[in-house]
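URGENT: need a sanity check before tomorrow's submission.

F., can you look over the Bifunctional enzyme IspD/IspF record below? I want to be sure the sequence and structure line up before it goes out.
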Amino acid sequence: MSPGAATPPKSVAVLVVAAGRGSRVGGDVPKQYRLLGGRTVLARTLALFERHPSVGSIVVAIGPDDEPLFRPSARGIGKLAGVVVGGRTRQASCLAGLQALAPAKPDIVLLHDAARPFASAGLIDRAIEAALLHGAAVPGLAVTDTVKRIDADGRVVDTPERALLRSVQTPQAFAFGLIHDAHLRAASAGIETLTDDGAVVEWAGHPLFVFEGEATNMKLTTEADFQRAEQAVSPLAALGDVRTGTGFDVHAFTDGDHVWLNGVRIPHEQALKGHSDADVGLHALTDAILGAIGDGDIGSHFPPSDPQWKGASSDRFLAHAAGLVARRGGAIAHLDVTILCEAPKIGPHREAMRARIADIAAIPVDRVGVKATTTESLGFTGRREGIAAMASATVRLPWN
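Structure tokens as predicted:
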């Protein structure tokens, strides 16, 4: 919150509306799940609120068939409190989300379009402050072009005074009880086609105020919007703090019939011994990411003395490290891992490993490298006593 702002409320919830189909963009994938600089639009939008200190919880309204698309976008979002299936209209989707938030009774709720991934922390601050001061407020921009109102034939009816016009954005901010009641009343009255939550409040007879929006808080609606957005984020233009980290891990062989390497189960005459599934590749990659962001090592996040990690799948470790990067507003630019062993052969499994690592870390597969080498029969790997892995991670973070 800015200096001199009203006292922050006890709780701020965010409802992200992601149930639309985005038909004006085209394609088979709804626009909120399209990749933008290597991450989905929705993942970027959720990250805005995940890292904002005043936001306590996030609920997302998604399409009825979108759970498989939604799940990767929500990785690392610790504030996610619920996912609801949206309705036929935006208004119905918002009501479904508000109903899900109702048991928690937040003081303030911000309603935000999934397709606006560029809202700043300052805009979120202003939204919360406006809700505290007014109970109902929306961000708006002054209109710079002259606006004409026309009839069905295209004839100009009048020219509104430009100084009194605002183009409205999200997040729209409300006292929770006020907006919840307004939506319930509109639904009971059979009103279904109001295009934003401010309009619902106006219909219910409540005063609505406008606070300053942001020109950069664009809504991705057309293909041209996506082209502009790509220019804004690629190549990771806003993430100028480039970090690198390295990781190393080793596990000895024990009795068994398979090994886990880079998230892939490979039949073998021995297994690897470890507290978890002993996946040396994913362990090394996890440490590389943690090293790049200066956040300890795998042992400090998942202590081997803790019984809950006994036999754990190592994809959880790598996903956790990737989530820490996302929560800091960053992105993983590249992951590279080398397996050191005499056997099993890595080549036949290389592409499956790359795909699995990319899936866990939520990055494109062309940002993953997997290599293997022997040690020419030297050392413990040469004597086939175990397997080692070394990894590097390149991470980009916003400058603090």
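My own read: The first helix runs from residue 41 to 50. The longest strand covers residues 241-255. If you see anything odd, call me.
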